[in-house]
Amino acid sequence: MRRRASLLAASTVLAAGMALPFAAPAHAATTLKFAKFYFDQPGADTPYTQTRLNREYIQVKNVTRKTISMSGYLIQDAGAKHTFRFPSSFKLGAGKTVTVHTGKGKNTAANLYWGMTRSMIWNNTGDTATLKKGSAKVTSCSYKETAAQKKAKTGFKNC
């Protein structure tokens, strides 16, 4: 009887111990992530036309099964010199991706526009994009331009 109780206790402890490594902490749950990051559009950056500016973009993907209100979310470059604030009424559908272009355009469910007219946002040689909700970091994506990207004068990264 004593041996049976010891085996039962050991199996309960073992089962509980086995379950713990597979449980993710609540703060590790990711709801949004960066997808494709096109930091150096093909060709020369200047003269700045809306076509050229809008070829530079970053995508934000909702990796949940629920629509997320993007009110209060923002994207910043490494030096926080450029900040994009999501429109307060914008909602990103479950499993959907929105592309945030550098230039101007008409906002839709799939495309948003930073509104730049005279400069690119992302440094061609390297930069970091950070998605925040207020002052809290949600996710980030960094890149360094490779020799091949520099030679081809185009650069993107899948985050």
From TrEMBL:
UniProt domain LTD: residue ranges: 46-154
UniProt source species: Flexivirga caeni
Signal peptide: 1-28
Coiled-coil region list: none
Protein name, entry field: Lamin tail domain-containing protein
InterPro entries in the record: Lamin_tail_dom, Lamin_tail_dom_sf, TAT_signal
PROSITE patterns listed in its UniProt record: LTD, TAT
Domain of life: Bacteria
Keywords of this entry: Signal
UniProt keyword Ubl conjugation present: no
Entries under Pfam families matching the protein: LTD
